[in-house]
Amino acid sequence: MVFIPLVGIDNHWKSVTFGAILLEKEDNDNYIWACESFKKVFVKNPKCIITDQDLAMKLGTVFCAESGFMEKLNQFIWSDHITPEEFEQGWSDAIEEFDLSDNVWLREMFELRNFWIPAYFNDEPMVGLLRTTSRSESSNFYFGNYVQRGDTLSEFYLCYQSAIDKQRNNSKKLTHYDDFTPKLITDREIEKDALRLYTRAMFYKVQEEIKAGSMDIVVLSMNFSENTRTIMIQDTFKKGITFKVAVNIETNNIECSCKLFTRAGYLCSHAFFCLGICGIKLIPRQNVCNRWLKNAIERFSTLELGEISDTGTTQLSRRVKSQDCWFEFQGCLSDASGNPDILEYIRSGLSSMRKHITVTMKKPRTRLNSEQIEELIDSRVVEEVTIQNPNKSNNKGSRKRIVSGAEKSIGCNKRKKRKCATCKEYAFHDSRTCPEKN
C-alpha cells in the first residue's frame, strides 16, 4: 500500500505529522477518498493541496543542467518580489530565447500558472510550503528509517507509532531549549521583544530581519495621510528593489509591499526599519502570528482533543461547536487589528458571557471528572478485561547453574553408586574413570 503522511509545520518551523493515509494505489479515486476522509476527520477543509512535478523529467536532465534554461527561468518562478505580469514577460522571454515555444508540456504548465507560480500566491499564508518539496522529501526519508517495504499492517503501525513518539520527543526538546536565551546582536528593544515572544527557531529568523533592517536601506520618500505614514524605501540587498511601507501611527499596524508577513507570518526587514523610524519599540501585536509563539501549544490545551477519535453524532457536534467558538474568537481578535476600543468591547463581552455561564452552571468546575480525563487522553476505561496473563518463560539466569568439579566431589554422598563395567564393583565411578583401568 502507498503510505502518505500529512505534514504541517509546528511553532519551531519543524515538520510535524498530524495524520497519515494508506492507499491501495495512487489514482484519482483513492485520492478523492483520501481528501474526503481528511475533511471528515479534521472538519475544516484544507486551503489548498500541493503537488510537485519534476521539470528535468519533461525536458531532459542534460538540457536543464547545461543550457542555462533552468537558471534563467527560476529567476522569475521563485522570485518573491515580482508581479504576475513581470513573471509572464520573463517566462515568454526565456521560452523564446531557448526556442521552446513548441514544447507541449511547457505550454500546459503556463496555462496552469495561477496554480503553482508564487507570484500568484503573495496574498496567501503559505508559511514556506510552496517554495520547495524538501519538507515532503524529508518526511519520506524520516519514516523510511522506521518502516520497510513488506511490513505487515501490525508491524507498520508499531513502527509508525515509534516514529511519531520520536517526533514528539524532539518537539519537547525544542520547547525546552526555548528557555535558553539566545545572543542578541543589536541594542534595539524590539529585538528583546521578539525574544520574549517567539520560539528559539523563529526568533533567529526574526532576528535576521531585524539585523537587515539596521543595514543599508535608503528612504526615497515619506508621506503623511491622516494617521498613516507611507514610506518608500530601496533595499540595496535585494537588487535595489523599491518597497512601499504603510504605518498607522494610532494602531501601529504596518504593511509592506513585499508581503513577507502574509506569506510567512513574521515581519520583514523593511517593516522593522520603518518601525524604528516611527519610534515604535515593540512589535505590533496584530503583526505577531500566534502559530510561531512559545505558548502556541498551550492556546489549544482547552479544546476537547479526545473527541477526535469519536464517531458519534453528539460527540462530533460538540467538537465542531468547540472549534467554531475558538475560530470565532480568533476572528474577532484579527478583525480588531489592535484597535483599543474594539478590544475593550471584546473583553467586556467575554466577561459578561463568562458571568452568565458561571451562573447557569451554578458553580465553576475546578477539577476534571473521570469522563473529561478520558476525553483528554483519548482513552476509555474498559469494563471487562479479556486479556490474560502470558505464560511464564525461562529468561536469562533462571536455569540451573553449572556445578563445578569440586562441588561434585563434595556432593558425592548424595549420588547413588552404580556398577563399573571394568572392576565389576558398585562405586561412584564408571568404566571411563575406573582406577583399575590405568
Automatic annotation (TrEMBL):
SWIM-type domain residues: 243-279
Highest taxon in the source lineage: Eukaryota
Keywords recorded for this protein, A-Z: Metal-binding, Zinc, Zinc-finger
A single GO molecular function term of this UniProt record: zinc ion binding
Name this polypeptide is given: SWIM-type domain-containing protein
Lineage, highest ranks first: Eukaryota, Viridiplantae, Streptophyta, Embryophyta, Tracheophyta
